[in-house]
Amino acid sequence: xxEFGSGFVALGAAQSSDKLSNIFRSRRQLAPLGQVxxxxxxxxxLQCSINFLAYFSALPDIAGKSLNGAAKNSTYLINGxxxxxxxxxxxxxxxxWRIIQPYGRxxxxxxxxxxxxxxxxxxxxxALYLNDWLFGETSRLYSMQLPSWKSALQDxxxxxxxxxxxxxxWVGFIYPRLLSAGFTPLKASLxxxxxxxxxxxxxxxxxxxxxxxxxxxxxxxxxxAMTPIYIWLYHQTGSALLLVVxxxxxxxxxxxxxxxxxxxxxxxxxxxANLVTLLCGLLLWxxxxxxxxxxxxxxxxxxxxSAEPA
Length: 310
What we know:
Blueprint: H1 2-28, H2 32-55, E1 61-62, E2 65-66, H3 67-72, H4 77-100, H5 110-118, H6 120-134, H7 149-180, H8 185-199, H9 201-206, H10 216-237, H11 240-256, H12 261-264, H13 268-287, H14 296-299
Antiparallel strand pairs: 1-2
Helix pairs in contact: 2-4, 2-7, 4-7, 5-11, 6-13, 7-8, 7-11, 8-10, 10-11, 10-13
């Protein structure tokens, strides 16, 4: 009787193991767009819940140290960590290698590095003068207020870490899957821009990495406007490290050129800067559209077969 019962237990355990294996196998076979929806939903849930708890100081103290402050200053790591984990889960070691490989692409024409460093400065100045001209403001000469070397060296490491985490998630994981699902590079970048900006909204409440006074709509519009330039640079070069340079330079440009609400007193100039940035990105795509050659970006899009561009 005991042997008969143990046989049923073994059979039940085997069936449970088979069901669990089928569940994991079906998840790994999830279509690229399904992977995008799933991972974005998990990231949003984690970001919103942890930042919500930290904002209301609901997290406990451990060993005399508050988890609320630590959570506010570290939730940016969620996206990057989730991108690496999901890349391994859905693609194994090859998937993990595909998301890391672009950071080793350094041998680019020097003009790309100069463009990544300096492109946002003339864009922001153009927005300032266009805003004055359209709204009849008194014409004046604007200048940059560059940070000190000490301040720049102090802020740069955090900007780099946030940039890498964001780019692993949006550019490394999400973007190739949108391409594989049939989106054109430009349409993928515009969709990503909206979602990227919405992902930053919890930081408005915790005050992490967001300039004071920026409205939620300007925050989302800013990433919607910036992402086409981001993806154009990436699609043309295949270098994720170039995007880190662009991100750091862009952050310092916004601090040096007087467009932020903490300097202007409202969100109007920043909104104009976002519109000019969007026009610049669309112009880049129109004048120099994405290459159809098998660049490192395109070659990473064989995740579940090809699709016709949306």
